[in-house]
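Standup notes
- DV: blocked on the single-chain target, sequence here:
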Amino acid sequence: MELETRIFAEGTLTFDEPSHKYQFIKNDGEIIDVRSVTSHFSILGSFNIGAMASRKAFRTTFMEEIELNKQYSWQYKKDAESFIKDISKKSADVWTKSAERGTAVHLVLERYAKGIKPVYDTDESIAKMQKAGIDWFDANVEKVISSEVLVYNKEHNYSGKYDLECILNDGRGRVLLDWKTGSIANYRRLPDMSSKQNLQLLAYMECLLEQEGGNPFNRMVVIIDRDSGEIMTRTYGTEKYQRDKSIFLQIINLNNYFHDYADEWKQ
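- DV (later): unblocked, structure below
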């Protein structure tokens, strides 16, 4: 797979999707490794690292209890180990399928925003989400400004790719939009599932403002339910922008501190 690139005045941003690695190649040839927007949020305990750590901790604790307490129903320790490995694998498979489902939905919506006729997935559950997203798009988007654009923030040295910049109808104006797939019930019930979305969109917008100038505008998350195809939206207005920006900058500083400390520890 070829590197995705975007040319800026001072150099070229490259993105290797399989490794999710960004680099900025300056015009003088200097290569700068660039952190992704999502990597900064790992400091908050991302689902991927956190989930793996939780599964490992569960297995370790469970096996310690097996050694100390013989009242469990399994006859042999190996049966318990096999059971835990099986559950861990199934959990990982669920995570992988969820990611693949989200990618399939994003791809159709990305192409549709660029004027390409949709080709729906053969999996009916995925096709249902794709159609729901396009129906919402047709009912709400007045004009596409840009779609799936690589962005770079020179000041804080991070990059990412936003889903959609558009004008909404009925006078709602310009928004930076992020598509999400999953369980709407979980989003409503678990604040942690949505607490980083407004900050992620803010990070992308900071790249736009650094490059183009101007003022912040609304951010929106459109969540497509994986079972029903129901749509839920969350809009983050400009009145919350400075609050969210201050939090995001603290996250960057904290993340940089831990990275720098790790490098110092190795010396």
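- Follow-up: The first helix runs from residue 37 to 40.
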